[in-house]
């Protein structure tokens, strides 16, 4: 049996105690055990990848390590007949790129339960423009989709980020009036995604002390947590729905019960990492059809493996917008 070499972006601890990543060659035999080996054609950069690349032990326990929680490519070999060599497939979340070698390498090997066939209507490249961000946005939209489009505006926070930008695009395509909150002056980008109104983070956080605020939002997709999520919940309309999936602002939530018992607001946590396979496949099919953003290609920047380090720095410092697609070569 051959044991080919391949390129991967490998992060390791340096003698001075820091963590640094660079493109190196490794062997297929060093991949973890699994049912399916996949030739990775595209991956994408997510916040978890950036944390893994900087030695965050809450994400990755052992180094050297190859991050990349998203991957799309073709099956090379498989232990199960449902996934045949050559089949185009997607792998996102689970333990990929966290403690299992991820999509920032030219090959991955994973359990069959992690693998989703590429749905008709998507290319491999498009699936990674969407990636975990698109899936998380779709899970959020699914929670609020029964809110009528004429019930009021839907708020999306962290709107220039991966999940936020996907949520804006999907909701706008479905006919909702989307108000975007962002700390970046990217009004043109957000307008192109379909946002009908844009609020700066600073303006959004003015006068947030009362325990309940003027009812404004029919639904909320929050991607950042902290004071922004607190403020959004306080200002949600009666029987409105709020989803939360991020904590980059803060993991803390300072609220009274007033929005919940006076307005019947509901708060839904979104966890894409352990989302079951069958509903995951159903959402990917929606993302390949009715929920597929019209301007998907305009939402992404493409980079090779050797440009990952500066892109990771930009992500950690809040300088990225939209999605960053990684081409392992």
Question: Which of globular, elongated, flat, extended, rod-shaped describes the shape?
Answer: globular
What structural class is derived from the secondary structure elements?
alpha/beta
SSE arrangement, N to C? EEEHEEEEHEHEHEHEHEHEHEHE
Compute the separation of the termini in Å. 24 Å
CATH superfamily of the largest domain: Medium-chain alcohol dehydrogenases, catalytic domain
Number of helices in the DSSP assignment: 9
Quick overview:
The protein has 329 residues and is α/β, with parallel strands linked by helices. It has nine helices and 15 strands. The chain has helices at residues 47-53, 124-144, 162-173, 187-193, 201-204, 226-234, 258-262, 277-287, 308-316; strands at residues 5-13, 19-27, 36-44, 70-78, 88-92, 107-110, 115-117, 154-156, 178-182, 197-200, 217-222, 236-244, 266-269, 300-304, 323-327.
Keywords for this entry:
9 helices, Rossmann fold, Quinone Oxidoreductase, Chain A, domain 1, 15 strands, alpha/beta, six-stranded parallel sheet, 329 residues, seven-stranded mixed sheet, globular, 2 domains
């Amino acid at each position: 049996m051959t044991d080919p070499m391949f390129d991967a972006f490998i992060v390791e601890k340096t003698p001075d105690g820091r963590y640094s990543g660079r493109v190196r060659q490794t062997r297929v035999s060093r991949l973890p055990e699994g049912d399916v080996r996949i030739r990775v054609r595209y991956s994408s950069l997510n916040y978890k990848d950036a944390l893994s690349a900087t030695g965050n032990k809450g994400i990755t326990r052992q180094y050297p390590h190859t991050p990349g929680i998203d991957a799309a490519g073709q099956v090379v070999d498989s232990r199960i007949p449902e996934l045949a060599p050559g089949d185009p497939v997607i792998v996102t979340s689970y333990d990929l790129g966290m403690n299992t070698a991820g999509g920032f390498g030219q090959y991955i090997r994973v359990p069959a339960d992690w693998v989703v066939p590429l749905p008709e209507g998507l290319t491999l490249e498009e699936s990674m423009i969407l990636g975990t961000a698109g899936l998380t946005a779709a899970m959020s939209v699914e929670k609020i989709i029964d809110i009528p489009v004429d019930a009021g505006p839907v708020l999306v926070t962290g709107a220039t980020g991966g999940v936020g930008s996907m949520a804006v695009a999907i909701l706008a395509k479905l006919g909702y009036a989307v108000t975007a909150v962002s700390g970046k002056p990217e009004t043109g980008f957000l307008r192109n995604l379909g946002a009908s109104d844009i609020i700066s983070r600073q303006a959004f956080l003015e006068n947030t002390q009362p325990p309940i605020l003027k009812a404004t939002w029919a639904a909320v997709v929050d991607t950042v947590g902290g004071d922004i999520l607190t403020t959004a919940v306080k200002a949600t309309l009666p029987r409105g729905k709020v989803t939360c999936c991020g904590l980059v602002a803060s993991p803390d939530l300072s609220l009274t019960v007033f929005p919940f018992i006076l307005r019947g607001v509901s708060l839904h946590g979104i966890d894409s990492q352990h989302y079951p396979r069958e509903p995951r496949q159903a959402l990917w099919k929606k993302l390949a059809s009715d929920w597929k953003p019209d301007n998907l290609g305009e939402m992404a920047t493409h980079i090779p493996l050797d440009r990952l380090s500066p892109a990771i720095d930009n992500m950690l410092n809040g300088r990225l917008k939209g999605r960053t697609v990684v081409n392992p070569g």
